[in-house]
């Protein structure tokens, strides 16, 4: 049976990897910017394991993700900025402060109540940190987020101050309007025009997802998985008919695609 390592052991492992005397040459060359893409990638791999309901893989991916803050904190400690214990202390204090209904005498009877408390506490913390109130209701939405997720967060913040469509039907009307403008740009617009109009369509779609209480990242990820599954089915379908994929006609592919859709619905 292998040894059961602890959190402190993992911190020690990371420290040893970054030790100039006998550490790992690759790890010693890294900095915050070079490690940042791995941090994002590991978060997506955790989400993928959850989507697949592969809990053995989830256990492994959570370990990979856990390594990321320890890695960043070790580099920060070397620069005299902060330690992993500072990070843990900060997030513990934040969770306690933003949940007065659990750790204090606050009251929250619904998820909506909790969301309101969270926003109020977050706003107060930011004002105290900056020494002033936020300049905009949209402050705090990082530009480093994936564009679709950032659109969702921007729209959520705008909606909280009343900048909101009254009904889903209005958003659908807006989507039709934006699609019409995209068609016009496709017909006679420049690349810049097409890009701008396509961006408008995607932004409205993100807003529609929000109003339907659907995470657009999740919806698109599910759609990607569905496309991949069906496309591979098309490849197998044509292979069974002795039709090489690269020689198949569009009609052959469409027929195979429809067969795959029928299989899923059966």
Structure, described:
It is a single chain. With 266 residues, this protein is mainly alpha-helical. Among the domains are: 7-96, Orthogonal Bundle (Helix Hairpins); 98-135, no CATH class; 217-265. 73% of the residues lie in helices and 0% in strands. Helix 1 crosses helix 4 (55-78) and helix 9 runs antiparallel to helix 10 (191-211). The protein is globular, with a radius of gyration of 25 Å.
Which keywords apply here?
mainly alpha, Helix Hairpins, 12 helices, 266 residues, 0% strand
DSSP strand content: under 5%
Which residues form runs of ≥5 with pLDDT under 50? none
The CATH homologous superfamily of the domain at 7-96 corresponds to MazG-like
Can you tell me the CATH architecture of the domain at 7-96? Answer: Orthogonal Bundle
User: Number of helical runs?
Assistant: 12
Question: Ends: how far apart?
Answer: 46 Å
Taken in chain order, the helices and strands follow as HHHHHHHHHHHH
Averaging pLDDT over every residue, what do you get?
Answer: 92
Indicate the CATH class of the domain at 7-96: Mainly Alpha
**Count the strands?**
0
**Largest sheet descriptor:** none
Rounded radius of gyration (Å): 25 Å
- Under CATH, the topology of the domain at 7-96 can be stated as Helix Hairpins
Global shape: globular
Structural class, from secondary structure content? mainly alpha
Q: What is the helix content? A: over 70%
């Amino acid at each position: 049976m292998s040894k059961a390592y602890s959190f402190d052991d993992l911190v020690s492992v990371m420290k040893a990897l970054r030790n100039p005397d006998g550490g790992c040459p690759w790890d010693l060359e890294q900095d915050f910017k070079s490690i940042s893409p791995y941090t994002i990638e590991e978060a997506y791999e955790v989400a993928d394991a959850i989507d697949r309901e592969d809990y053995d893989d989830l256990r492994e991916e959570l370990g990979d993700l856990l390594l990321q803050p320890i890695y960043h904190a070790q580099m920060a400690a070397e620069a005299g900025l902060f330690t992993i214990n500072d990070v843990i202390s900060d997030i513990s204090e934040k969770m306690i402060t933003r949940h007065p209904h659990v750790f204090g005498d606050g009251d929250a009877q619904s998820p909506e109540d909790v969301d309101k408390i969270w926003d109020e506490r977050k706003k107060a913390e930011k004002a105290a940190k900056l020494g002033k109130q936020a300049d905009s209701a949209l402050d705090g939405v990082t530009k480093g987020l994936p564009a679709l997720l950032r659109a969702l967060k921007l729209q959520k913040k705008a909606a909280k101050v009343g900048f909101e469509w009254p009904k889903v039907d209005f958003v659908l009307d807006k989507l039709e309007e934006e699609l019409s403008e995209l068609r016009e740009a496709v017909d006679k617009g420049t690349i810049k025009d097409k890009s701008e109009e396509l961006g408008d369509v995607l932004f409205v779609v993100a807003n529609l997802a929000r109003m339907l209480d659907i995470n657009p990242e999740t919806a698109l990820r599910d759609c990607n998985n569905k496309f991949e599954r069906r496309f591979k089915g098309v490849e197998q379908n044509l292979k069974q008919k002795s039709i090489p994929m690269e020689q198949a006609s569009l009609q052959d592919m469409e027929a195979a695609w429809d067969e795959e859709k029928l299989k899923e619905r059966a």
